[in-house]
Known about the structure:
By secondary structure, the protein is an alpha+beta fold. The chain contains 6 helices and 13 strands. The chain has helices spanning 7-11, 29-36, 90-97, 147-154, 162-174, 178-181; strands at residues 40-47, 52-57, 62-67, 74-80, 83-87, 106-108, 116-123, 136-139, 189-197, 204-207, 216-221, 225-231, 251-257. Strands 2, 4, 5, 8, 9, 10 and 12 form a 7-stranded antiparallel β-sheet that branches. Strands 1-13-3-11-7-6 form a 6-stranded antiparallel β-sheet.
Amino acid sequence: MNIPSDAAARRAVPPVICYPVETLPRPDMALLDAARASLTKTGETLIPPRDARTFSVPAGHFFRINSVEGPQVGDLNLWNARDLTERFYSGKTRALHGTHITRGDRMWSSFPGMRPLATITHDSLAWYGIDGFGGSVHDVIGTRCDPYTHNLLAGGQYHHCCHSNLSRAMGDYLGVPPRDAESHVHDVLNVFMCTGFTRDTGEYFMKASPVRPGDMLEFFAEVDLLGALSACPGGDCSAEHSSDAAPCYPLLVETFAPAPGALGNWKPPQPSGYDRTHGR
């Protein structure tokens, strides 16, 4: 390996933030906090271990993902319920908010919508921060465990990874086989999962989630939402990513409505104002 004489100087160049967010539209957290005080529960969906279910949330309502029996992580997909082509864009969310998201951060939608689908309003694991390994919770860097990578690395036909779980759930929702619903499944928010990148090799790692029964992540629906949540076959992801051996537990999704008038003049965000001419 030929190391240039100015290698140290090149490495010492300071980083530049790709997307300065000073002008990024901010949620009115005071308004959302006030609305939270008036919530009435409207429904719930229990996600069985190693499986997935869909749920719906009207714009202006809230939903919570709860740990209920034991440490368990979940893979979350979100869509605009009125147009499934507008869905959660994990890469752009990561670019705007960082590798892990928490209270006050938003889940942004795919192009051409490019608007918030949901805003995180409460995170009982916000205390965790970033640990000594560089790990944190609720990441937007992992794609979801899937049968294709499993087949590539280990062979065989494993059907209860999160991609397949979400494909089955969407198939049930749409009334089609999982094969036909699979194209709707997209990169996820890894709820409760504790992850990061190794500092020596840059590899994506996971470690035992700090989640415990009673913990929850709460969201405000900025548009009418369809959600799908998989209770990952890795359990708390302390040992294996996809496994029939890892202890796994259900997750509970609850939906809530604020009191009439609690949101004042709030309105759902409009799609991006870009004219889509692309210079022509």
